């Protein structure tokens, strides 16, 4: 018995798999590669462009001391954000980073044009914000074009102002006496204020006590009047009851006397009827 012959695969069955693989490969090719923010290489500067120079701190982990904890990725990302924003907002502009600078300064994020400072992180101690700094660059270029003084854009004025240390000087004898007098006056004023508050509190408590006594006396008087009124009502009620009772007893006595008289009057009549003469 011969084994069953295998049917040859048709071309239509293999094509869908091949098409799926090709589609997957094309999709993978369409995905843009992940952006390498640490790549700070510059493209050739186009002619007739407004070049904005950036000096950005690099190689933070390798070249800095162990106590300098810089995030190199933060510097690089911020530069790329500035590059996109500046070139989109300012026509015919081009940004370069660390151009003709072999070793950038530690912690630098400097923005310059024609060797004139627009923003300096070293002077201000602060990272620049993208949107307001782009507007700052626009104003700088307009002022430079119109021949205005652009020295004010240097960020030396943006240094953090620290409160100067006050040197304590020893007071003179007159100043010491005056200080003690002022302190004594303050203490005296505090004492007088406390005394005034104490008296006010005592007066308030005395008024409250008198008011309580008045209310208690009034309540006692009302209670006594109500008790006297009730006692009078009870007395009158008892007198009325005694009077009614006396009248009832008197009435009963009169009725008993009348009954007795009637009984005595009936006896002679009965005797008279019993003694009639015989005919």
Structure, described:
The chain has two domains: 34-158, Glutaredoxin (3-Layer(aba) Sandwich); 171-256. The chain has six helices and four strands. It has helices at 11-30, 60-63, 72-89, 121-124, 130-145, 173-274; strands spanning 50-56, 93-97, 109-113, 116-120. A four-stranded mixed beta sheet has the order 2-1-3-4. The protein starts with 10 loop residues before the first helix and ends in a 5-residue tail after the last helix.
Salient structural properties:
2 domains, elongated, Selenoprotein_Rdx-typ, 279 residues, Glutaredoxin, four-stranded mixed sheet, redox-active center
What is the CATH third-level topology name of the largest domain? Glutaredoxin
Please write the CATH class name of the largest domain.
Answer: Alpha Beta
- Largest β-sheet summary: 4 strands, mixed
- Shape type: elongated
User: What is the number of helical segments per DSSP (H or I, 4+ residues)?
Assistant: 6
Number of domains: 2
Mean pLDDT: 81
Rounded to an integer, what's the Rg over CA atoms?
60 Å
**Which structural class do the helices and strands define?**
alpha+beta
Give the low-confidence spans: 8-13, 156-163
* Spatial strand order of the main sheet: 2-1-3-4
**CATH homologous superfamily assignment of the largest domain:** Glutaredoxin
SSE sequence, one letter per element: HEHHEEEHHH
- Gap from first CA to last CA: 178 Å
CATH architecture of the largest domain: 3-Layer(aba) Sandwich
Proportion in helices: 55-70%
């Amino acid at each position: 018995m011969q084994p069953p012959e295998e049917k040859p695969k048709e071309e239509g069955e293999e094509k869908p798999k091949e098409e799926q693989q090709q589609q997957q490969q094309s999709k993978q090719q369409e995905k843009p590669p992940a952006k390498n923010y640490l790549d700070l290489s510059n493209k050739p500067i186009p002619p007739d462009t407004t070049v904005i120079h950036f000096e950005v701190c690099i190689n933070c982990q390798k070249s800095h001391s162990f106590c300098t904890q810089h995030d190199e990725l933060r510097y690089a990302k911020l530069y790329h954000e500035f590059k996109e924003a500046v070139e989109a907002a300012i026509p015919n502009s081009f940004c370069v980073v660390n151009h003709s600078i072999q070793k950038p300064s530690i912690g630098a994020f400097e923005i310059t044009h024609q060797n004139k400072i627009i923003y300096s992180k070293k002077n201000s101690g602060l990272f620049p914000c993208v949107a307001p700094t782009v507007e700052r660059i626009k104003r700088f270029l307009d002022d430079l074009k119109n021949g205005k003084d652009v020295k004010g854009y240097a960020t030396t004025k943006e240094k953090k102002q620290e409160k100067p240390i006050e040197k304590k000087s020893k007071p003179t004898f007159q100043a010491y006496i005056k200080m003690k007098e002022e302190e004594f006056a303050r203490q005296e004023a505090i004492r007088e204020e406390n005394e005034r508050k104490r008296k006010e509190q005592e007066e308030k408590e005395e008024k409250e006590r008198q008011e309580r006594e008045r209310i208690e006396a009034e309540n006692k008087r009302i209670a006594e009047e109500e008790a006297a009124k009730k006692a009078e009502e009870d007395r009158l009620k008892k007198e009325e009851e005694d009077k009614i009772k006396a009248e009832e007893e008197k009435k009963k006595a009169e009725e008993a006397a009348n009954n007795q008289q009637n009984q005595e009057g009936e006896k002679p009549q009965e005797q008279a009827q019993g003694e009639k003469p015989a005919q």
